[in-house]
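job 3f2a | input accepted
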Amino acid sequence: MILIFLGPPGAGKGTQAAHIVSSRAIPQLSTGDMLRAAVAGQTPVGIQAKAVMDAGKLVSDEIVAAIVEERIEEDDCAGGFLLDGFPRTLAQAEMLDAMLRKKERVLDAVIELRVDESALMSRLRSRIAETKARGEEVRKDDNEETFKKRLEVYKEQTAPLIPYYEKQGKLKVVDGMGSVEAVSAAIDAILDEIRP
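job 3f2a | predicted structure (196 res):
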């Protein structure tokens, strides 16, 4: 089963991804993690990415796609995978389509966690408070200023993927405003329909 998660920052993608990883036994492929692993492993693409990052530039779509392509060749992806943070743009979505076609694999579904934007800010505040209450360090990007910027980037670059995948008949919308359990149950129902 090959899946993509879409939704603005704070929609609960990380929480739901963990649920899918454990319930469906497929790996979650996070772009950031894959990039760091490729750099650390000094793969040809990782060396290329490191040179770009060392120059203080953003890694190109082509490099990100090459890292994804390298990663999905690994044995743990044979039964499928969940993409997290890729594709982020229409160009990347087209690259992914071409990559899957070449490998004769099929994207099963794109799950959009639809949430109320105003509620996201209160979710962020709760997450910060809970993290502090546990005595843990708050993530660097868990502040309102950074969050607003990430939300703008999502709307500008990633939200156009919603109609793109809708046209392909791949988009499945889940109300992300429910409890964690309710959202998980809604996702499970969709996945059971696709692959019982």
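job 3f2a | The chain has a mean pLDDT of 90.
job 3f2a | closed
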